[in-house]
Amino acid sequence: MKGKNILIVGGGTGGHISPGIAIYEEFVKRGVHAFVLVGRRDARFSSLADVKDADLLLYGAPSLTKNPVMLPIVALKFLHAYFWAKRFIARSQIAAVIGMGGYVSGPALLAAARMGVPVYLCEQNSVPGKVTRYFAKRAAAIFTTFAASDEYLKNGVKIVQAGNPIRQRVFAPISCEDARRAFNLGHCKRVILLIGGSQGALRLNELMLGLKTKFSGEFADTGVIWSTGDLSYNEYREKSGRALEKGSVYMSPFIENVGAAYRASDIAISRAGSGVMMEIAAMGLPSVMIPYPFAAANHQDKNADEFVEAGAAVKIANDDATPEIAGPIILDLLGNPMRLAKMAEKALKVARPDAAKTIVDEIITALR
Hints:
This protein is of the alpha/beta class. The chain folds into two domains: about 5-170 and about 355-365, Rossmann fold, CATH 3.40.50; about 170-350, Glycogen Phosphorylase B (Rossmann fold, 3-Layer(aba) Sandwich). About 40% of the residues lie in helices and about 15% in strands. The chain has helices at about 15-30, 70-90, 105-115, 130-135, 175-180, 200-215, 235-240, 260-265, 275-280, 300-310, 325-335, 335-350, 355-365, and strands spanning about 5-10, 35-40, 55-60, 95-100, 120-125, 140-145, 160, 190-195, 220-225, 250, 265-270, 285-290, 315. Strands 3-2-1-4-5-6-7 form a seven-stranded parallel sheet, sandwiched between helices. It has a six-stranded parallel sheet with strand order 10-9-8-11-12-13, with helices on both faces. The radius of gyration is 21 Å and the shape is globular. The model has no long low-confidence stretch (mean pLDDT about 90).
């Protein structure tokens, strides 16, 4: 691998970007030079701060649209991004391109495939996305998170069930007690972590607000680490008002020290994107999964089912994520330490903390 460079491309959501950063970190650890390429709109993701400035690239890859009026503009943007990627791959002597998913990855993957540069794909969800399905036949290998993905990729391509790569910052070397103190929750008997995703989740934020308001007595000794998402923070900070005083709450648009947040918590409430699911599992954290109902091919629901079947999580439908329905379920879990311990044990079994290592091993071996 000496003298060879790797290009990792993906974007659109944190679920495509975070595992790409984990792979980048693993290549850096091995002394292999890697670049991370994302769309210009993806510059907002705070996790990209973990990539060296010289290794982080932005290009104008477009999002897909169903608006026929916009199709010519999308086509022009795609071509511009395609030729930019083609020049970069040639100029930087890229030995392989790893697609993390999202339409942002399309131009670079197509450029690599047409140049004869090996293409690898990472599929985070149980139901492969359109980009993965389109480039599957051109891929040297596809790295999947869930075994269920194999059903959709029966075309002779090499499939490696590696898991979803996890960033180094998730594995925070900190005790539960110290982690709670870091969020000013050292006095709490129990802690709930609510993750709304990079854009926030209205339903999850409304649920937490309702729980703190309607079950203030029951949650009096329970701390909350509440990640609202960038778009929702100001609104829910204002909405919460006195509800925040009825128990300890750490509220933030996003949780920068995510590893400490996992360590501090007894249970997580989250959407069912595979990235956050695998981070939660790797920390041995029981979870309540509330799948986003409009995810492509309903993949979040299927992701959550995998954890439920393993005994690592409880699933609550989006429509049922109300204080009246979800509140008793969450309180029952928090009041049952033996069940939480068993769920934590099951979570660790489905986690694949060495996913990045598995993927990098495979690619380095193939490129030697």
